[in-house]
Design brief:
globular, 9 helices, alpha/beta, 2 domains, two-stranded antiparallel ribbon, 270 residues, seven-stranded mixed beta sheet, Rossmann fold, TylF_MeTrfase
Amino acid sequence: MLPSINKNANIFFKLLSRLLNKLFGKYLYVAIMTDFTYAKDNLLTKNSASFLEDPQFRRAYLAGKQTDKDRFLKGVDLEWRVHVLCWSAKYATNLNGDFVELGVRTGFFSKSIMEFVNFEELDKRFLLIDSFRGVIPELLNSDELRRESNNTDSVKVWESVYSQLEKEYQHTPKVEVIKGIVPEVLFGVKFDKIAFISLDLNSALPEKHALEFLWEYIVPGGIIVLDDYGYPGYEAQQAVHNAFAKSKGTHVLCLPTCQGIIVKPNLDCK
């Protein structure tokens, strides 16, 4: 009898924690920040978060966040995730290859990255690829369809986002805003060597096709940041990422931010 009670209790507390996180996750950190260095975006820690005091990072983060205009984030902060992206992009500046973002939204992540690495000084392109329609229902599995059923943003919202990005980068030839559905849109893009990819399409099948299509362009040591790798409810993407990495003789680094990282091995060094 006791095992059954314990099992039911575990289920109850798991459901309760999910409910509390959904209802109050944006605000709970305010009450406990005196004890924790970071308590946002499903991440709670007392470990050092010194990057939060870095003026260069702060400027980059705020520049990116301003692109959102509270259309998607609704007050949520993602500093540690952006820190991982900025660190990864900074590392990739030493590699020969362009930057690619798949899943752009308002350009929050890419704007922060460009500010952090002083992108205008680099001899690289930054390709910003998005449907600018949100997730594509025809490409979702049944679990993803249920998850995304309440996340439908209006056509007007996406039109304004796309217009905003086009306007911002119309005089920046090194930054290309590309509208289209992955994977079809990739066949019309002229890719060269790639050093860095930010992958955030919120669906497993497009991410699988994107990884398979772009791998040959990624230089040895090139880095891929998987935004949804460990996020609750996105297990199908994690399975795709793991299987893909294994097929390439490597594995995914799982981070507590929910992100995953794949670094392309240099097989010539073996």
